[in-house]
Amino acid sequence: MVCAVILLLNFGYQTMEMPFCILKGSSVHDVGDSALHFTFYQRIEICKLRQGEHLILGFSIGGGIDQDPGQNPFSEDKSDKGIYVTRVTPGGPAEVAGLMMGDKVMQVNGWDMTMVTHDQARKRLTKKNEDIVRLLVTRKSLEQAVRHSMM
Amino acid sequence: MFCRNQTTRATIARGSALEMEIRRGKFRRSVLLDTLQDSNIQKKIDHEIRMRDGACKLLAACSQREQALEASKSLLTCNTRIMAYMSELQRMKEAQVMQRVALRSSDAGPTDDRLPCKGKVAISDLRIPLMWKDTEYFKNKGELHRCAVFCLLQVGAEIHDTDMVIVDRTLTDICFDNTIVFEASPGFELRVELYSCCSEEDYSTGNTPRKLASKLSSSLGRSAGKKLRVAMDPGACSPISNGGGATLLLPLPTVVGPKYHLLAHTTLSLSHVQDSFRTHDLSISGNEECSHWVPLYGSVCCRLAAQPHCMTQQMMSGCLKVKQFGGDPQSWTNVYGVLKGTNLFCYHRQEDVEANIQPAFTISINKKTRIRASEKDLHNKAQSICISNHYGGEEVTHTLSADSREDTHRWMEAFWQQFYDMSQWKQCCDDLMKIELPSPRKPTLVTSKQGSLYHEMVIDTSDDISTVTDILARRMQELELRSQLGTSPPWMSLFEDSPGCPRTHNRLPHSPLRCPRPGLLSSEASLTSDSDSPCSTSPCSRHSGWAEPLSLSSHSSHFRPRTLSLDAKLSTLRGRGCGGVLQCSCQPPSSSSLAPIPAQRVPQATLSCSNSTSSNSSSEGSHSPELSDGTPFSHPSSARQSLRNLRAKLDPRNWLQSQV
To answer: What are the REM-1 domain coordinates in residue numbering (chain B) (predicted)?
Structure first.
C-alpha cells in the first residue's frame, strides 16, 4: 500500500513546496521503523542563470550507472548508482532554490534519473531550450528533520 | 646547617623559609616546563586519534582492495604511534614524580651529566630477500598468492612507515625505496618491523553489515578518544595518581577490513651504522600456515647512516689568538675560530665564514688530539689552551688564547663536549656520512581524512572542449582545402561580426568558417556515435523538428544562451553552419537558407537541432566536463595537459563529477 502524505511543515524554503513523503509498508498504523519505509522527497525548481554565453544551474553532480558507486561519499548504500549533488555553488541558482549537497536527484523535468549514465544525467540537466528545471530530490537530512519534528 | 646551593651561588639556611620558597619556585617552574612537554605529546596523541578515526572511516567506506590495504596500514601506524606517545607520556610523568621526590628530599645537587649531542640517523634502501620454493617460482602454477607488506621503523617515540608493496611469486626481493630520517642520540635503538597481510579476500563486505560495522568502528573510535583525552588531561586524574603507573587500556575499535600481522623484526643500533650497505638478521614470527606468510630468506639489507650534530653544526665559535708552538712568542695571530666536526677552522675575519672563503688554517680535533689548558703564561695573564696533533710523525702544537677567562672556559667546555660526542658516536665521527634527504613524495591516492578527496578530483575539461574543437578546426582547415565551395552561403555574413551571435573560440579563424560547414558537420556526424537522440527531448517541451527553433527565437529578444558543456560548444559550431535560426537574434533565415547545405547533412541536422544538447556527445563515451565555478571557457594551456585530463577521465577509478 502506497500513499502520499504531504506534511505541513515549514523548513524555511519559501519558494518551494513542502517536502512530502511516500509511505510504503504494511499499514499506516504500524509505527515501528521496520514496518514503514519513509522516503522524503523535495521538489526544487531552479531557474537557469545566464552567464555570458552559457546557462548554468550552479551545482555539480556525480554518480550514474556507469560509475563506481563505492566512491560516492554521499550515498548511504554504497551500491546506489543514482545521481547525487556533489557541490552547490554558493549564491548560484541551485542554492537559491534550496538544493543541497548530498541530495539525490530522482527526476528532472519528469525524466527519471535513477537509472541513467552520468552523461545522460548531465544532458538532461543542461538542455539549451529549457530555462527552468524541476528536480525531484531526496535527502537524508530531510528524513531526520521530519522524524525529529514528529516526535 | 648551611648548604651551598650551587645554582643560586648563595648560602641558604637549611629548612629556612627562604629555602622552601626557592624549592617551591623551582618546583613550580618545573611543573610548567613539564606541562609544556606534556601538552606537546597530548597534541600529538590527539592528532593521531583523529587520523585513526579518519582511517577507520575510510576503511569502512572504501570498496577497492588497494585503498583498503592503504587505509589499514595507516590505521596500524596510527595505533602504534598512539601507544608510543602514551608510553612516552607515562615515562615523562614518572620522571616528573621522581624529580619532585628528589627535590622534596635531601638536596640533590645539579646533575652534572654530560649528554652527547643528537644526530640524524637515516635508514634507506631496505631490501628483504625472499626464498620461494623452486617449484613455485618457476612453474608459476595456479593463482598468484599475493601479500601486501610494509615496514614500520621506530626510534623512541618516532614512528615512520614505508610505502606498501605487493609481493607475489614473481618477486625475489621486497624493496622499499623510502629514506627515513630520525633524530636520535647515540644510544638509539631502531626497531624495524615487517608487517604483511594477505591481499586476496574480499573485505569490503564482511560478516557484519556495513552500516553496523562502520557505526561500530567510528563510534568506538570517538568514545575511545574521548576517554583518552579525559585521562590525559593534567587536571584530571593522571595515570600516576591512581595507583601509580597504571597503564591505560586503549580499546581498539573493531574494524572490518584487511589486518596486518607482524612477520619479522630486528633492532639496529649504533654498532650497525656504516656508510655502506650491510646485512642484518631478521627474527621471523609466523610460519607457513599463516595466511600472511611470505617466505623470507631471513635477512635484511639496508644502509644505516648517521650524522651527529657535532659533525654538521658549528659547536663553538669566537675570537681567538693563535700561536704556533716554538714560534716567536710575540707572533700571535688573531683569528675567528669555528669548531665544527673534526676541525677547528680559523678564519681571518668573522665575515669569511658566511662568505665561504677558505680559512687561514685548520687545526684538526680528532680522537688523537691532545688538548690541555696551561697555567698562566708568563707573557699574558689569561689561561691558554694547547692543542697538539701528530701530523705524519711530527707533533705540532698550537696555542690558543681567548680574550677572557670565561671565554677560555667556554672553549675548554666545547672541546670537552666535542671529545665526549666523538667518543659516544664512535665510527660516525671519523668521516661525515652522506644522508640523502627523501625527495617530496607523490601525494598518494588515499588520504585518511573524511574521504572528501573525491571533491578534489576536479576535471578541468575546458581544455578538452578546446581539444575537440581544435581537432574540428583542423579538420575544417583540411576540408577547406578540399572543398569545392567557392562562395560562402549567404547566411554566413550574419555571423561575421554581429555582436549577438556567440563566438565559440577565438582561435578559429574566420575563413575556415566560411566553407567547411559541410566538413564540420560530417566530422561531427562521425563523432556522434551512440546518442540517445530520440528519447532525450523533454516531455514538457512541445517542440518538434524545425518548428521549435523558429518559434523560440521569435519569443526571445536575445540570443539563446548556451550551457557550459561540450555539447554547447559543438552545437554552436554546428549551429553556425546550419541553424542560424537557433543562435542569431538577427533576422532568422528561412528554411531556404538551408539549401546550400548538402543533402546528406539534413537528416543529421534535423536530429541535432531538435535534440539540443544530447546528440553531440563526444566519442570519448561517458565523459562529462567539470569546470570551475562560474567561469566561462578558459583557453587551454597545452596539449599535454589536455591529454592528461583525458587520461584522467578515461581512468575507471575516477568518480566523475560534472558541473551543470
So the answer is: 17-98
pTM: 0.46
User: Are residues A60 and B204, on separate chains, in Cβ contact within 8 Å?
Assistant: no
DSSP B364: E
Reported as type and span, the H/E element at residue B25 is helix B17-61
Q: Domain range holding A111?
A: 2-149
Q: Identify the burial level of A82 via C-beta atoms within 10 angstroms of its C-beta, where 0-12 means exposed, 13-18 middle and 19 or more buried.
A: buried
Q: What is the DSSP string of B186-220?
A: TT--EEEEEEEEE--S--SS-SS-HHHHHHHHHHH
d(CA A127, CA A124): 6
Closest Cβ–Cβ partner in B541, B567, B572 for A130: B541
Q: Are B264 and B284 in contact (CB under 8 A)?
A: yes
- pLDDT tens figures, B126-138: 999 988 876 655 5
Q: In DSSP terms, which residues pair with A111 in a beta bridge?
A: A108
Which chain B residue is nearest to residue A125, measuring alpha carbons? B660
- Buried b / exposed e along A45-67 (16+ C-beta atoms within 10 A): ebebbebebbbbbbbbbbbbbeb
Q: Which three cell numbers stand for residue B496?
A: 561575421
State how many domains chain A has.
Answer: 1
* H-helix or E-strand spanning residue B183: strand B173-184
What CATH number does the domain containing A45 carry?
A: 2.30.42.10
**A82 and chain B in contact, CB less than 8 A:** no
A148 in contact with B, Cβ within 8 Å = no
Cell of B252: 581498539
